[in-house]
Amino acid sequence: MDTRYAFAQELAREAGLLAYDYYKRRSALAVESKGLQDVVSIADRAVEDLIRKRLAERFPEDAFLGEESGASESLEDGRSIWVVDPIDGTACFLNGMPSWCVSIALVHEGAIELGAIYDPNVDELYAARRGGGTYLNGERQPDLSATAFADGAFGIGFSQRSTSGEIVPLIQGLVDDGGMFLRNGSGALMLAYVSVGRLIGYFEPHINSWDCLAGLLLVRESGGWTNDFLADGGLLRGNVCAAAAAGLAPKLQALIARTVPNPTRP
Questions:
Q1: Residue of 226, 254, 224, 255 lying closest to 145 (CA atoms)
Q2: Which of 73, 131, 217, 241 has the highest local Cβ count within 10 Å?
Q3: Cα–Cα distance for residue pair 235/229, rounded to 1 Å
Q4: What is the phi/psi pair of residue 27, to 5°?
């Protein structure tokens, strides 16, 4: 696992620099629609191909699950599974907004073992290993300290897989409780921000595993709280995503319980 942890960080940076090269010439990229408010570019596919190739060369015994190319062989045989989003925030990427990143996580025996998120726009590498703390550009991050919604901005995510009724009441409750919110277009990046205290928490009624697993581990290793995303088939089907500083978690759990219809309970 030490070798995988080091390699994941190196690979996230390599993939991020490739993505950034595409970003600088994004006007020439071919773009396809995968659905309402969901696009993919040749950059996404090229970056994922790079990541998948490097992992197959280095760890051929491991399985793979990527946003663009899907799963490798069976994910149910106990092997380690790399879960990858080559460019989280593609819409921002294509429209010239620097709110996107590369996200790589490793799941083993039902637990998120390690995660790496690289933002090449500002050269920031977030990394965590289960039980080992969260690091930003090699510096150990302190435990999170927020205890109230008024302590900072709260990250919100949304996609057309959900309905407005699954998010609007929560936003209203958040504001009524003294909070403020933002959505930057990248769930992975917002979770990374939670892990270093830039945001106090994050909620999305449904998100895919490749968008959030690395970020969830980052939050946990900064002493924060997250829901059990992998429960109920979250790896393949996606799930609700909730994260916050530990001192804020009871308030977030109560807010979800009273405003979100039938959420997957934290």
A1: 224
A2: 217
A3: 8
A4: -65, -20
Residues 22 and 132: their CA atoms lie apart, in Å, by 33
DSSP 183: -
Please, are residues 147 and 247 in contact by the beta-carbon 8 Å criterion? Answer: yes
Each residue's pLDDT expressed in tens, for the chain with a length of 266 residues: 999 999 999 999 999 999 999 999 888 776 765 544 445 688 889 999 999 999 999 999 999 999 877 677 666 666 899 999 999 999 899 999 999 999 999 999 999 999 999 999 999 999 999 999 999 999 999 999 999 999 999 999 988 777 888 899 999 999 999 999 999 999 999 999 999 999 999 999 999 999 999 999 999 999 999 999 999 999 999 999 999 999 999 999 999 999 988 654 43
Structure tokens at 258: 């009273």
Residue with the two structure tokens 């901005």: 153
Tokens of 25: 């010439």
Q: Are 127 and 116 in contact (CB under 8 A)?
A: yes
CA distance 147 to 246: 8
| Helix, strand, or coil (residue 163) | coil
